[in-house]
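User: I'm putting together notes for a lab meeting next week and I want to include a structural view of one of the chains we've been expressing. I don't have a solved structure, so I'd like a prediction I can at least talk through. The sequence is below, exactly as it appears in our construct file.
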Amino acid sequence: MRNTKNYKVLPYNPELLTRARELRKAGNLCEALLWKQLHRGNFRGYDFDRQKIIGNYIVDFYCSQRKVIIEIDGVSHGKKREYDQCRDQYLQSLGLTVIHVLAEDVLKRLDEVMAMLSSHPVL
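Assistant: Thanks for the context. Below is the predicted structure for the 123-residue chain, given as structure tokens.
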């Protein structure tokens, strides 16, 4: 069940709506694999959103019940460290926890990624 109190209090830039929809449609293999594990309450009964707009950012996965963001970091994230740090600081300033997983781990070690998420203290 969606915790609308946590869900609707977050800042939201409506100008990103089209982009978020495009990202959802396009997807990528890593996101599709992890999404299969997270959506429809498959992971501990939690409700996750995919490509959720928070402020001026679009996050990969968001769970309002736990105030958690899961980001899949691919090759391009190595070149955007400063951007990612600023983004994480902003999201954390909203009281959110950001968990990063490597795209390669999702592709090659999905069971280990899910085990890590299962043992994460905020989940």
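A couple of points you could mention at the meeting. The mean pLDDT is 91. The beta strands are 48-54, 57-63, 68-73, 97-102.

User: Perfect, that's what I needed.
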